[in-house]
Amino acid sequence: MRKSEGKTNKYFNLEEMRQHKVKATVYIIIRVITVALLVLSIVRGHWENVMTCVMSLILLLIPLFLEKRLKVVLPSVLEIIVITFVFAANIMGELGAFYEKIPLWDTALHTMNGFICAGVGFGLIDILNRNDNVKINLSPLFVCLFSFCFSMTAGTVWEFFEFGMDMLFGKDMQKDTVITTINSMLLSGQPNVIEHINDIGQTLVDGKNLGINGYLDIGLIDTMKDLLVNFVGAVVFNVAGFFYIKGRTRVAAFVKNFIPKHID
């Protein structure tokens, strides 16, 4: 082995050790905070928060489940992002009300979700492509297409979940949006005639003013926005993923940090 190769291997070993230390630190901090909030919620009798904490702790076990049961290991960078994502979505988003305090919080998480799920889909098909026992050899374009469809399907299923929680349990996961324009055929009372209502300043329900400067859209705009940013995240990853497969260029070298690997 040449000296340059030895230096390269040493560099990557040190880099992996550093990433493992960061991952372990993040795991400890997030679990300690989550357990503390769990205990506090039990003491205060906030049982909905208790369920959120329990669900978060279960989700934090996903990387371990993948490794032990499916023999799939997540790169340290991806694993750190996944556990941070769970904490940001459930603990900070729900318990800390970051969804209400920071308008772009939900948008940022759905964009990242599209990116992460694209990486998972990309890794799954890459594993099959490299498996000698599976007769499949997709071109880079189809690998990216599968990854994109996987990400969009995951995003759509999540929106189904939000809709189901709102309809069945009276939640408000599909956040409302205040709008000032309505285009409706129903309100016109005539087939194929659209009624345009502009500059809406207030909304009354049963004679009561809702106190908003416009009309309340219940969930639709939020759902479509979430799917749109999921689309953006998936496209960004797969553009980089395509060049990663084709040329393994430095520009797309970061992609390897988001691709799960199969344990032989």
Write the layout of secondary structure elements.
Layout: H1 3-44, H2 47-59, H3 62-69, E1 72-73, H4 76-95, H5 98-101, H6 105-130, H7 140-169, E2 177-179, E3 182-184, E4 195-197, E5 204-205, E6 208-209, E7 215-217, H8 220-247, E8 261-262
Task: Kindly estimate the percentage of residues that lie in beta strands according to DSSP.
Answer: 5-15%
Low-confidence sequence ranges:
1-12
Characterize the main sheet. Answer: 2 strands, antiparallel
Rough shape? Answer: globular
Helix content: 55-70%
In short:
By secondary structure, this protein is mainly α. The protein has 2 domains: 216 residues, no CATH class; 41 residues, no CATH class.
Characterize the structure shown.
The chain is globular, with a radius of gyration of 23 Å. Mean pLDDT is 87; it is low at 1-12. The strands form four sheets. It has a two-stranded antiparallel sheet. It has helices at 3-44, 47-59, 62-69, 76-95, 98-101, 105-130, 140-169, 220-247, and strands spanning 72-73, 177-179, 182-184, 195-197, 204-205, 208-209, 215-217, 261-262. The chain has eight helices and eight strands. The longest helix has 42 residues, at 3-44. With 264 residues, it is mainly α. The two termini are 25 Å apart. A hairpin with a 2-residue loop joins strand 5 (204-205) and strand 6 (208-209). The chain folds into two domains: 3-174 and 219-262, no CATH class; 177-217, no CATH class.
List keywords for this structure.
264 residues, two-stranded antiparallel sheet, mainly alpha, 8% strand, disordered N terminus, 65% helix, single chain, globular, 8 strands
